[in-house]
Structure formats: structure tokens, C-alpha cells
TrEMBL record:
Family classification: Belongs to the ComF/GntX family.
Species annotation: Streptomyces agglomeratus
GO molecular function terms noted in the UniProt entry: glycosyltransferase activity
Protein name: Phosphoribosyltransferase
Origin superkingdom: Bacteria
Phylogenetic placement of the source organism: Bacteria, Bacillati, Actinomycetota, Actinomycetes, Kitasatosporales
Keywords tagged on the record: Glycosyltransferase, Transferase
InterPro entries: ComF/GntX_DNA_util-trans (IPR051910), PRTase-like (IPR029057), PRTase_dom (IPR000836)
UniProt keyword annotation of Glycosyltransferase present: yes
Length: 242
């Protein structure tokens, strides 16, 4: 039914692939392959920031995948959230499968929060939108999942663009916290931090610290928080350090 509706809508509205711009396709076969084809894998930036959780990413952040993410995030192509959510859902499942001790309960997708000023400027919160799509995809596949947006920025941070890895870590240090009562919302589930892109890992490391600061359950202890992202730099997949 969804494919039929897109065909009809394409007669009225211009539709172009979010990855390469080809007409009459929200995401063409080649760009879908770039987003989904490799399958989720562990990603580790270098240098790896202290406290970074184990991260799984769906695809390398390059070419079509970069174009899709930027189209959704910066150019307001909100219809791409469903495709990006599918990629994130796979990374979430892969990350959750690596959880220690056979943890049970629904998957709780915890978005890394964007600055309020960035959300206002874009007119939407891209990470939370992708997380909702991922949770919907997981539920459709029979996996209990929901979004638990329990993190917030409690102080202003500088724009991360152009900052080195140490500068990003210093910029974000102590910037996130769990909202009042947020710890209770995570009880009985398997929390997985989610973001659209991991670059240096500073944001995920700070988010993991904030969760661990209020959690009493072992799954949130240092080194046991899990994370999933749509994309990460290619070298994050290639370099494997023991």
C-alpha cells in the first residue's frame, strides 16, 4: 500500500531520492543498499574517549548516507526519518544483543539531546524523530520498544563543528543530565543510547556518564551502557583495537 501511495503522490509532488537525487524515488535501490547493505557493526573512533559505551552503527558516514542524514537533519526532508529509523533499528538490535548477562525487558531508546537552539532553528528534533521511527520499526518486527527521552542539556555548549576530539570532550563535559524522574522511566527495560551520527564519540560518552550518574542497576555501570547510531566514519569500522 505504501508503494502504491508513493506512485500516486509522485504524479502530483516532485519526489527525488534523498541520497542521490534521482527522480521518482524517496530512496533509490542503490542508496538503500548504502544505508542497509553492510549491516550494523561495532564502531570505535580513534582516539576513543573515556567512558564511551559499546556502539553499533548501521553504515559508514559517507556519500549517499551522509546526504540522507543531512537532508533529514538540515533540509527538513522529514519523510526520510522512516528509512533512517530502519537503519537505526538494526543497530539498536545489534547493540542490545551484545548486552551482558542476558538482560530482558523492552528496548528503551534514549536519544542524545540536541541543543534547544538547534531544535528551534531546524524546526524539529532529528534524533528524536529517527528514534521514534526506529521504535516503530522494532515493534512492527515484534520487539517491544519505546523512546525514553530522559536526557537534557542543562547548560549551553558551543557548536561542535570544527572542534578537535579533546575540544569536543571538554565542550560537552558535564553538559547532560537525566530529567527529574527519568530514572524511573528506565526501570525494567534495556536502555540503548541513540544518535544519528557518531564522530568523535564525545556526545555518547557524556550521555553514558549522565545515565550512569543516576542509575543503580548494573546495566548502567561504566562500560555496560550500550549505544546505536545510524552512521559513523568509515575508519571507525576498520580499526579494531583489543
Amino acid at each position: 500500500m505504501r508503494g502504491w501511495w508513493r506512485e500516486v503522490a509522485g504524479l502530483v509532488l516532485p519526489v527525488a531520492c534523498g541520497g542521490c537525487g534521482r527522480p521518482r524515488a524517496l530512496l533509490c535501490a542503490e542508496c538503500e543498499q548504502a544505508l542497509y547493505g553492510a549491516g550494523p557493526r561495532r564502531a570505535r573512533p580513534w582516539p576513543e574517549p573515556p567512558g564511551l559505551p559499546l556502539v553499533h552503527a548501521a553504515a559508514p558516514y559517507e556519500d549517499a548516507v551522509r546526504a540522507v542524514l543531512l537532508g533529514h537533519k538540515e533540509r527538513g526532508a522529514l519523510e526520510l526519518a522512516w528509512a533512517l529509523g530502519g537503519a537505526l533499528a538494526g543497530a539498536v538490535r545489534s547493540s542490545a544483543a551484545a548486552s551482558p548477562g542476558g538482560a530482558a525487558g523492552p528496548l528503551l531508546l534514549v536519544p542524545v539531546p540536541s541543543a534547544r537552539s538547534a531544535v528551534r532553528a531546524r524546526g524539529h528534533d532529528p534524533v528524536r524523530r529517527i528514534a521514534r521511527a526506529a521504535a516503530s520499526r522494532l515493534r512492527s518486527a515484534g520487539v517491544p520498544a519505546r523512546v525514553s527521552a530522559v536526557l537534557r542539556q542543562w547548560r549551553a555548549v558551543s557548536d561542535q563543528a570544527g572542534l578537535s576530539a579533546p575540544e569536543r570532550a571538554a565542550n560537552l563535559a558535564g553538559a547532560l543530565e537525566v530529567v527529574v524522574g527519568g530514572g524511573r522511566l528506565l526501570e525494567g527495560g534495556r536502555a540503548v543510547l541513540v544518535d544519528d551520527v557518531m564522530t568523535t564519540g564525545a556526545s555518547l560518552a557524556e550521555a553514558a556518564r549522565a545515565l550512569s550518574a543516576v542509575a543503580e542497576r548494573p546495566i548502567f555501570a561504566s562500560g555496560q551502557v550500550r549505544a546505536a547510531v545510524v552512521a559513523a566514519p568509515s575508519l571507525s569500522f576498520v580499526i579494531n583495537r583489543n
